[in-house]
Fold this protein.
Amino acid sequence: MGKNIPLRKCLGCDEMLGKKGMLRVVKTKEGEISIDETGKKNGRGAYICRDMECFSMAQKKHSLERSLKCSISEEIYEKLRQEIEEL
């Protein structure tokens, strides 16, 4: 039997994909929101495809805010957008 691949749902396109091919956005206990490149940071995580279109959809549907259980300012969205573009 092969190894089990952990699947996560993209907040933009709602597709179930392998965890390794997605971006994890994490909210720490201090309330800081950032992209977790290692996938190991402590905090509440949400997953998005490595695609600006999915990120825009997640922002439009407010699914990132629901998943992280907090409101997200426009500055934080802009910071996340820049981090995604750099990857």
In short: Residues 13 and 57 are 7 Å apart (CA to CA). Strands lie at 7-9, 16-18, 22-27, 33-36, 44-49.
